[in-house]
Amino acid sequence: MSKPTFEENLERLEQITREMESGDLSLETSLKKFDEGMRLAELCGKKLDEAQRRVDLLLKRDGVLAPEPFDGSPSES
């Protein structure tokens, strides 16, 4: 079986969050879900860090790495 994608992990993390926010879980189940959620959050964080490093490498200007923060708005250059 293949490893889940970032999107699948994020979707599962969102599902766990909804389940825990409902307040209908036992303490034991909540702890298991929390543990799974923390593991998924770490995996997603690592994937985002990796993506950020790749973006930084692509943002070269005049052959020199010039990382720019991504704020979601179009650049003015």
Report what the structure shows.
With 77 residues, the protein is mostly helical. The chain has a single domain (6-65), classed as Helix Hairpins. The chain has two helices and two strands; from the N terminus they run H-H-E-E. The chain has helices at residues 6-22, 27-58; strands at residues 60-61, 64-65. A hairpin with a 2-residue loop joins strand 1 (60-61) and strand 2 (64-65). It starts with 5 loop residues before the first helix and ends in a 12-residue tail after the last strand. The model has no long low-confidence stretch (mean pLDDT 86).
Secondary structural class = mainly alpha
Percent strand equals 5-15%
What low-confidence regions span 5 or more consecutive residues with pLDDT below 50?
Answer: none
Task: Compute the average pLDDT.
Answer: 86
Write down the Rg. 18 Å
Q: What is the number of strand segments?
A: 2
Share in helix: 55-70%
Gross morphology:
elongated
Any idea what the CATH architecture is?
Orthogonal Bundle
Order of helices and strands: HHEE
- Largest beta sheet: strand ordering: 1-2
Number of helices: 2
- How many domains would you count in the coordinates? 1
What name does the CATH topology carry? Helix Hairpins
In whole angstroms, the N-to-C terminal distance is 45 Å
Element layout with pairings:
Blueprint: H1 6-22, H2 27-58, E1 60-61, E2 64-65
Antiparallel strand pairs: 1-2
Give the tags.
single chain; 77 residues; mainly alpha; Helix Hairpins; two-stranded antiparallel sheet; 2 helices; 2 strands
